[in-house]
Amino acid sequence: MRYHNPVLLQSACHFLAVKPGGHYVDCTLGGGGHTTEIIRLGGLVLGLDQDPEALQACPDLDGLTKVQANFIHLAEVVQTHNWQPVQGVLLDLGVSEHQINIPGRGFSFQLPGPLDMRMDPALPNTAGTLVNQLSANQLTSLFKDYGEIPVAKLLAAKIIAARPLTTTDQLASITGKWSRQAFQALRITVNDELGALAAVLPQAKEILAPEGRLVVISFHSLEDRLVKQTLKDMATLTPKPVIGEKGAKLRAYVKTFNHS
After folding, report:
1. What are the structural domains of the chain?
2. pTM score of the predicted model
3. Is 33 annotated as a binding residue?
4. Separation of alpha carbons 49 and 255, rounded Å
5. Is 143 annotated as a binding residue?
6. What percent of the chain has pLDDT over 70?
């Protein structure tokens, strides 16, 4: 099984405007789908991923430097590897097909497995930790804020009544038709996905060379809204997002100013 089929592959590379010999950062390397195309077009890639399985799945390519790191450390990693000037930064947000399809990772509400959901196995808290230890108010806020579930309070009460929960199928039997949103909310919280996204966008802006490109692929409104709000001071290449398969939205920005 292929690790992950990259969405919006051609669109992402088009908006990155890959230049031969240019330095690019793939902040979500995954199986290397986007990176492989960037290298085919002549770019050099610094590939980051917090998931060690992703780094193992990505082939060792000429022109690729692989680093196990959360993209929240983007600026530090770029400096450490002397990767500037950076012509382009790519973020393909969300969860990979591999992570979803491996029951032991605990990302899928359709496959029985442990309540894990950590992209980096070294993270301290699993989904099980949250489900079994958070209060009713905390669970309600989690489901409401990150899953946009209208019956968040009811789900929280049902979960607390059924605790302890240890497997994805146990949780899915409670969350029912809201399972997709509930599992998304837990995954976002476990991995602090929105916090990491809020932290990396200003870093990407700073490390980009003038006329450098930032391309972000998001999969839900929380991510997309954060991208628009954070980068409103940058010139938009895509006034409306490019829509791809699986609900993916691509937004691209160009840095048209020098550092002050």
Report:
1. 9-97+193-254 (3.40.50.150), 124-190 (1.10.150.170)
2. 0.91
3. yes
4. 24
5. no
6. 93
